[in-house]
Amino acid sequence: MTKRVFNFSPGPAMLPLPVLEAAQKDLLALPGIGQSILEVSHRSKDFLSIIETAQANLRKLYGIPDNYRILFLQGGAQMQFAMIPMNFLRNSGKAADYIVTGSWSKKAAPEAKTQGDVNIAFDGSDTNFNRVPKADEMKLNPDAAYAYYCSTETIQGVQFPSEPDVGDVPLVCDASSDVLCRPVDMKKYAIYYACAQKNAGPAGVTMVIIRDDMVAKCPDDLPSMLRYPPLVEADSALNTPPVFAIYIVKLVTDWLLDEIGGLDKMLERNRMKSQMIYDAIDGSDGFYDCHAEKDSRSLMNIAFRLPSDELQDKFLAGATERDLVALKGHRSVGGCRASIYNAMPVEGCQLLAEYMTEFKKANG
Ligand code: PMP
Is pTM beyond 0.90 here? Predict the structure, then answer.
């Protein structure tokens, strides 16, 4: 096998090796089908069985109740930035609450504004998006059309330890950066969505878990591809769905169930992995400066700075020599960022933590 590096990219990101191996092994012909997954019809019973298994796996992993649909859509997470307000804000006669904790929720709010009134219930920009709000800091409207938040801000590395309490208002979550990283009580959500390319598969598919009463609320006067009801009725195949990406999501969720043993186990492993890197930061006497405040730190994305640009460049070059790649932070916050999604092996986190400690000793 060609050598693989530890890829700390924020997405598309590493996939579990057994998933890549299974996809490689069966690429020419799926067992019992005799066709490549790249060749099968999206209307065939073979593909229907793949999409049904992916849905059943997600239901099992999250304990998703029967009154929720699971969709596999195109257009990325950002298409949901648009579809959600088009369907639930535009004709509602209400405003929507947006809890803004980083770049992605900041980007979602103006998209909603194109469709109706938006109340910014919290704006973390005053502290450079380094934390999630406390309950009493959010100006939530009890009559909002919905309340929207992003469970992990990929760029800032800020994660909600648990969902905000928004009372009876439908809760909408962009879980792109932490989907499947820990158990979630899906009953608290009206819509829970995530693009796949970080923690669930390749680019090209977005998973949308949506409660039936929300589907029933959608207006008629939108094009079919932008309304949830036709997508639900067609079970995600209103047009040709991203067959290969859905197949990989099936393999990733098989891996989570069969090899990891579910989301409790995944969470344990993610805590252990992230702790290694946070320990390297906290034990560095301030050499590494973590962007997120302690109680808002993410299990998935760790953004940190070094004392100078020169040291940062040297750190990144040394990391690449050790096969620890894609650690440069997003241009909007600078510094470094380690994205350590489910598929990042424990060894990758260990090597990075060791390297960080070594680098500080030599340069601190
Ligand atoms: N939300 C979050 C939290 C993200 O990290 C990203 C992508 N990095 C997006 C939304 C946008 O995803 P997409 O490119 O699939 O539209």
Answer: yes
